[in-house]
Amino acid sequence: MSKKTNTSRRKFLQQIGSASLLAAAGPLTSFAAKEKAEERIIRYSRKISSNDTVRLAVIGYGIQGHFDLTTALKVPGVELAGICDLYTGRLEGAKELHGKEIFTTKNYKEILDRSDVDAIIIATSDHWHARITKEALKKGKHVYCEKPMVHKISEGMGMVDAQRNSNKVLQVGSQRVSSVVYAKAKELYKAGEIGKLNMVNAVYDRQSAIGAWEYTMPNDASPGTVDWERYIEGMNKIPFDAKKFFWWRNYKEFGTGVAGDLFVHLLSGTHVITNSKGPNKIFSSGQLSYWKDERNVPDVMTGILQYPETTDHPAFQLTLQVNFISGTGGQESIKLVGEEGVIELRGNSLTVKHSIMAKAPGIGGYDAVFTYPKVMQDQLMATYNQKWTDEDKKRPTKADVDFRAPQGYSDHLDHFTNFFDSVRTGKPVVEDAVFGLRAAAPCLACNDSYFQKKIINWDPEKMKLV
To answer: Where are the alpha helices (H) located in 46-194, listed in sequence order?
Structure first.
């Protein structure tokens, strides 16, 4: 094992020591948190044999592909085998970072044909996710596919079937589902910390050009440096457009807008906490408010999703919001609002605040009772005091919770660690094709609702439009 790997492991162990994680648990000492911390330490302490080494390749080496690879290579026993991208400059940059000997190509099929590749990261534009994933699984590769899992809802069941038929691991890249913070939120929710759930408010706002997908483009973008014909393969022919390649999230032909990029994070997190399979009614509204840069997807969108009652959770409403020119400066939060309190998740921390009603309903109705005749007032008060004790009239209290992950914690690293553990052992991943479809489809249905101006009905159990 290399000196670099050992150094990374020591640094990681310092960040995630079980003592620090338990100290972060707050008033509710968490056995689940302790077990998760110990599991993480064991995974990062064991030696990886050459037989357990995972050879990894990346298809789509843009912003997210680069970020994914950098994180994946921190996991012990993972080696880089190749990089595919349609832009020459990214392949040149990859060789500068990872060595001139690294295999690079603009043809993803050359990656899939390599016998020394065990697993693939797919971080292309959304319209290539399903096609490359199915081909990779058929070629016997394990797949980490960036969210959303599909570009269109109609591609979903094909992905589910492809995973089942391949017996290979498919994990979707919404990293929050592997977070210790979300595990803590799930534990608190399941324990009834906030009582019956009524609604979830989830927000992912931004206020920057980069955050609104106006990424810095290279100064040599041209048909000579970009394999445009391969990029639009299977589509109607359109002339080269650098924006549609480097800013692909801005166009529904290549991306899935704010719903597929950001709603899916919020919805995935909600699903893993509540153990939900998804909503049955979906409606959204939005507009193009600020970023009028030829994009054809909104920069402000709100989705309202109604979840049916199941054995795992009561009926509740999920509100999703994205605003790309937010005066807040940008924020991300999920608030689970129950009858007795609120669980709020922000980044690598969560808080629980309580407000519990007294058993006695109170009397007066904003002093309305005191507008009645005095005799009636006395009768009503006597009846009320006879029925309810002084204790019944008090609001119950419960200790609030403040949970923070250890300093330097990365749910992205945990998500990749879970993926490679599954590759080595065959254990199930949290975010497989079924989870991925149940997260992606309602978000894509928000787009359908926005463009078609109607309520979309979805069967979360059978995973199909109604």
So the answer is: 63-72, 88-98, 108-112, 129-138, 156-166, 180-190
Query: What would the pLDDT profile of 199-245 be if each residue is shown by its tens digit?
Result: 999 999 999 999 999 999 999 999 999 999 999 999 999 999 999 99
* pLDDT for residue 46: 63
Contact predicate 272/182, CB 8 Å? yes
Cis peptide before 314 (omega within 30 of 0): no
Contact 361, 392 (CB under 8 A): no
Beta carbons within 8 Å of 375's beta carbon, 6+ residues apart: none
Q: For the chain, which domains are there?
A: 3-177+420-425 (3.40.50.720), 180-220+247-358+399-407+433-465 (3.30.360.10), 364-394 (no CATH)
Give the model's confidence band at 3: pLDDT under 50 very low, under 70 low, under 90 confident, else very high: very low
In sequence order, which residues have a C-beta less than 8 Å from that of residue 140 and are 6 or more positions away? 166, 168
Q: Is the pLDDT at 256 greater than 60, yes or no?
A: yes
For residue 20, how many other CB atoms are within 10 A of its CB? 16
Enter the tokens of residue 179. 């977070």
The pTM for the full model equals: 0.90
User: CA 351, CA 122: separation in Å to the nearest integer?
Assistant: 34
